[in-house]
Each structure stands twice: as structure tokens, then as C-alpha cells.
């Protein structure tokens, strides 16, 4: 086997090493899009999110979106580094986005209950703002936390 | 109808860019000029050890301060504060890692430190911007 072929084979058998900067770029872009939509469509965009939450469609859509986004990002990193995806990362990416979005939905229910029990004026609009905030925070957490977990596990594996 | 009033928060956050990018650049130019040199340093050269991560932590602290003073539910305040803090701390870690690598003689790549700190600074900056827009919407709701 020639030397370049050996080097190529060694590179391809290497497991993907994730850097937080990869997910940070995606979250930054996602945040800028979300912020721009809030500024450009201050009524239509929030109404769309609140209505889909009321119909119970927001949670599955967000789960699917974050799962696909995380998977696509991981595969892009693997392709760029010419390395193969690892089992540990696949397990993290398969479970964590769904768990994070599910957990965020649970916290949102608590926040809505708390808001409805308060004595603020404009309660319905206030609940809408809570839904908007939690939707954004869940999106960020569902992209950031799985990659943070993978990164920390990789560092832990290197030290033990 | 477009609500450009929220853009004021972007300008407010943009003020952070002056002490972070422009001031060090101006000081470096002044320093070189005083010593009669002709070389000029770009922001990339000035922040190649991941110093942008330190700024991100300061920016995250500013965002957390505003979130804590808001009238959002305590659950929302907690989630937003924790996420902002995590972003800021991870950005700062880039500088710490680069410093340790440089001091211990381990191989360090200025390109990688610059890229990592820049991406994490974008993350914290854009997240703080969206949080400020959400806070602005909530405060206008309270004023109605």
C-alpha cells in the first residue's frame, strides 16, 4: 500500500472531533434570522408561533427541525474533516435534541401557568411573549447542548 | 407592520463593538506611530489568542443583568440566564485554552483560536440581541 493511501485510510478511520465553534456559527445565524423575523414581522411571526403552540404543532415541528439541523451539522463537520461519525455522538444527537425540546416545553407549561396566575394586565399577550421567548431558547439549547455534551465527552475520553 | 423600534437594541449592543474592536486597533496604531513604525495590526492579529471570548463573557453578563430585571416568569429568566452564561463561559474557555497551550509549549494555532472565539462571540452577541428584542417587546406590553 502506498504512503498517501495509508495516510488517507488513517484519516478516514479517525472519529469526528467536534468544536463548539461549529455549532456556535449555526446558532448565531439562527438567532439573527429569528431576531430579523421578530423585527420585520412583529405581529405575523409571533402569531404564527403562538397559534401553532395552541394547536399542539410547535413541539413536534421543533423536535424534527432541531434533530435534522444537528444531524446535518454533524455530518457536514465529518465531511469537512474526512472523518467517520462516532457512536457516542450519534447517541447524543439522536436523544439530546428531543430531550431538550421536551424539557423546554415542560418548563414553558410551568411559565404559562405562573403567568396566568399573576395579576399583570394583558395576560393573553404576556403568555404569547413567554411562548416566543421559550421557542427561541429551546432552539438555541437544542443545538448548543448536544454539541457541548459531545465536546465534553471527547475531552473526558482523552484524559482517561 | 415592521417594528424598527426594536432595532435600537442592536445599536445599543453595537456600542460594545467600539471598545472591543476600534479602541484596541486605534491604541495599537497610536503605539506604532509613537515609535516611528510603519506596521499596522489588524483586529485578527490583535485578537489571535482568543481575547474575543473575554468580551463575550462581559456581553453575556450585560444580557443576564437585563433579563434578571425583566418581568418574564422566573422559569424564563432562569433558562435565558443559564444559556447566556454558558455561551459566555464557553467563549472565555477559548482564551483560557489558547493561553494554556501557548504557555505549556503545546502546539497552538492562532487561526483556530481566532475562528473559535469569533464564532462564539457571534453566538453570544446574536443571542443577547434577540433577548434584548424580546425584552423590548415585553416592556412595551407592560406600558400599554
What does this structure look like?
The complex is a heterodimer of chains A (160) and B (144). Chain A is mainly α and 160 residues long. Chain A has one domain. Helices cover 84% and strands 0% of the residues of chain A. Chain A has 6 helices and no strands. With 144 residues, chain B is mostly helical. Chain B has 2 domains: 31 residues; 97 residues, no CATH class. Chain B is flat and about 60 Å long. At the A-B interface, helix 2, helix 5 and helix 6 of A face helix 5 and helix 6 of B.
How many structural units, i.e. domains of chain A? 1
C-alpha Rg of chain B, in Å? 18 Å
The major β-sheet of chain A equals: none
* Topology pattern of chain A, helix = H, strand = E: HHHHHH
What does the overall shape of chain A look like? elongated
Number of helices of chain B: 6
Number of domains of chain B: 2
Structural class of chain A: mainly alpha
How are helices and strands ordered from N to C of chain B?
HHHHHH
Uncertain segments of chain A are none
Indicate the structural class of chain B: mainly alpha
How would a crystallographer describe the biggest sheet of chain B?
none
Considering DSSP H and I runs of 4 or more, what fraction of the residues of chain A is helical? over 70%
Q: Which residues of chain B form runs of ≥5 with pLDDT under 50?
A: none
Show the largest interface. A-B, 43 and 38 residues
Shape of chain B: flat
Rg of chain A, Cα atoms, Å: 20 Å
The oligomeric state of the chains shown is heterodimer
Strand content of chain A: under 5%
Measured distance between first and last alpha carbons of chain A: 33 Å
Amino acid at each position: 500500500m502506498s504512503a498517501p493511501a495509508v495516510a488517507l485510510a488513517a484519516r478516514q478511520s479517525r472519529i469526528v472531533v467536534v468544536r463548539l465553534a461549529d455549532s456556535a456559527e449555526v446558532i448565531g445565524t439562527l438567532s439573527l434570522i429569528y431576531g430579523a423575523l421578530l423585527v420585520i414581522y412583529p405581529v405575523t411571526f409571533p402569531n404564527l408561533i403562538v397559534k401553532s403552540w395552541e394547536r399542539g404543532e410547535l413541539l413536534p415541528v421543533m423536535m424534527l427541525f432541531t434533530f435534522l439541523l444537528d444531524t446535518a451539522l454533524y455530518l457536514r463537520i465529518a465531511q469537512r474533516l474526512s472523518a467517520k461519525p462516532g457512536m457516542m455522538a450519534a447517541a447524543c444527537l439522536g436523544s439530546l435534541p428531543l430531550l431538550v425540546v421536551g424539557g423546554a416545553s415542560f418548563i414553558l407549561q410551568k411559565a404559562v401557568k405562573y403567568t396566568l396566575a399573576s395579576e399583570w394586565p394583558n395576560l393573553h399577550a404576556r403568555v404569547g411573549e413567554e411562548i416566543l421567548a421559550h421557542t427561541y431558547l429551546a432552539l438555541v439549547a437544542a443545538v448548543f447542548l448536544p454539541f457541548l455534551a459531545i465536546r465534553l465527552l471527547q475531552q473526558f475520553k482523552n484524559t482517561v | 407592520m415592521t417594528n424598527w423600534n426594536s432595532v435600537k437594541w442592536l445599536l445599543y449592543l453595537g456600542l460594545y463593538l467600539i471598545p472591543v474592536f476600534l479602541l484596541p486597533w486605534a491604541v495599537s496604531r497610536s503605539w506604532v506611530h509613537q515609535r516611528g513604525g510603519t506596521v499596522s495590526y489588524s483586529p485578527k492579529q490583535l485578537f489571535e489568542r482568543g481575547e474575543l471570548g473575554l468580551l463575550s463573557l462581559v456581553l453575556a453578563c450585560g444580557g443576564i443583568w437585563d433579563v434578571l430585571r425583566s418581568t418574564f416568569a422566573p422559569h424564563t429568566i432562569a433558562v435565558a440566564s443559564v444559556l447566556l452564561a454558558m455561551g459566555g463561559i464557553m467563549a472565555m474557555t477559548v482564551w483560557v485554552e489558547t493561553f494554556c497551550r501557548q504557555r505549556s509549549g503545546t502546539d497552538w494555532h492562532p487561526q483556530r483560536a481566532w475562528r473559535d472565539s469569533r464564532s462564539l462571540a457571534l453566538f453570544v452577541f446574536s443571542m443577547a440581541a434577540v433577548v434584548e428584542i424580546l425584552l423590548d417587546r415585553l416592556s412595551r406590553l407592560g406600558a400599554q
